Amino acid sequence: MNIFRHRPFGLLAPALLITVAGCSSADDSATVAVPSPDAKTAPVCRDLHKALPQQLDGRSRNDPEPRSAYTAGWGSPAIILRCGVVRPPKMIDPKVAEGGDPDAIAGGVDGVDWLMERQGDGTWRFTTAGRVAYVQVSLPKGMSAQDEGTVVLTHLADAVKKAIPTGIASMRG
Fold first, then answer.
1. pLDDT at residue 13 above 50?
2. In this structure, are residues 36 and 43 in contact, taking their beta carbons and an 8 Å threshold?
3. Strand locations in the chain, DSSP E?
4. Which of 4, 58, 127, 162 sits at a 20 to 30 Å CA gap from 112?
C-alpha cells in the first residue's frame, strides 16, 4: 500500500485533531501514572499526602488525574510528586556513586537525600534516598534543577521528613 497516495487526508487528520483539542474543554490537571505502593509503603505515602504544602514555589496545589493519595501536583505545567514508586535503577548504579554519570547525581537538600536525574527530554526527576518510601518529584520542561529544583526540594523537605522516616525502602523493583 502506498501511504503517500492518501496524503491530503493524512494532512487533514492532524489539523482536525488540533482543532478538536483546541475546542475541547480541558481542565489544567496533569495526568500521571499512580504508583502501587506495597502494604508497608502505602501508609507513609498517605501521611505524606496530608503533610504536603498547598503552595510550592509560588504554584498552587493542582493534583493530577486520576486523583490519588500517592500523587500530588502544583501549577500548570505541573510539578508532579509520586510516592511509593520503585527504586530507580540509577540509585544503585556505581557509576552514579563515583560521579561518572553526567545525567545523575546524588545530593542532599535541607536534610533529605535525593537522586537527581536529567531525563532524555531535558526535564529533571528527583527521588528520595535513605527513606522507607521512594518519593519522586518531576519538574516540567523549562525548570532547572539548580534553580527551581533546589527551591522545590527545600519546600518539600519538611513534609518528607515529617511523613517518611529514614530507613530502607521496600519498593526495590
1. no
2. no
3. 55-56, 59-60, 71-74, 79-83, 104-109, 112-118, 124-129, 135-138
4. 58
Cα 26 to Cα 23, 31, 173, distances in angstroms: 9, 12, 35
- Distance (Å, rounded) from C-alpha 119 to C-alpha 121? 5
Q: What is the pTM of this model?
A: 0.82
Query: In this structure, what C-alpha cell is assigned to residue 20?
Result: 478538536
The set of cell numbers assigned to 94 is 556505581
Q: Which residues are CB-contacts of 173 (< 8 A; sequence separation ≥ 6)? A: 86, 87, 89
Q: CA 27 → CA 17, 82, 112, 129, 140, distances in Å? A: 18, 20, 33, 33, 17
Q: How far is CA 162 from CA 58, 63, 73, 155, in A?
A: 22, 20, 19, 13
Closest to 173 (Cα-Cα) out of 116, 119, 92: 92
pLDDT in tens, 141-154: 999 888 899 999 99
For residue 74 the three cell numbers come to 502544583
Torsion of CA 9, 11, 17, 18, to 10 degrees: -150
CB 149 within 8 A of CB 126: yes
89's grid cell: 535503577
